# Entry
Amino acid sequence: MRWLYLVSGIICVALGAIGAVLPLMPTVPFLLLAAFCFARSNPEWERRILADPRWGPQIRDWRERRAISRKAKVASVAAMSAGVAFTGFTLGQPWVWASVAVLVIIGGWIVTRAE
# Structure
């Protein structure tokens, strides 16, 4: 079972790295999953994720207080809004409504988390 957590953690780090350069793909949720997997398979790699100066504080805030910083909230809602606009311009109706639903549901959930 340990190897399954290790492989899952590596995949999550790869997806998080992709999300760091692609504006519409998240980074922190994948790194949260990676830290979870590494805690069960390779504690040294978990420690390295938590010690990272850019992503570590966000992951620790979520683990300790279930909190998302205001800056991260604004960035995520802005990225989702850009996704809605992009979908509206490229695919139009009815596909834009799926993007609007994601923005309302996920964006609403993000905005209501503690800071």
Summary: Residues 70-90 form the longest helix (21 residues). The mean pLDDT is 91.
